[in-house]
Amino acid sequence: MKILITGGAGFIGSNLTERLVNDGHEVVVLDNLLRGNKIKRNIFSKIEFVEGDVRDEALVLNIAKGCDIIFHLAAVLGVDVVADNPVETMDVEVIGTRNIIKAAERHNIDKILYASTSGIYGHSAIESALTEEVLVDPRTSYAMAKRYNEIYLASHHEEKGLNAIALRFFNVYGENQDNRMVVPRFFEQAVAGKPITVFGSGQQTRDFTYIDDTVEACVRLMDVQGYHIVNIANEAEWNIEHLAKEIKHITNSSSEIIFLDAPKKRYDYEVERRVGSSDKLLKLTSTKPTTTLQEGLALIYESKFKK
Ligand SMILES: NC(=O)c1ccc[n+]([C@@H]2O[C@H](COP(=O)([O-])OP(=O)(O)OC[C@H]3O[C@@H](n4cnc5c(N)ncnc54)[C@H](O)[C@@H]3O)[C@@H](O)[C@H]2O)c1
Question: From 16, 189, 200, 223, which residue has the greatest number of CB atoms within 10 Å?
Answer without folding.
Answer: 16
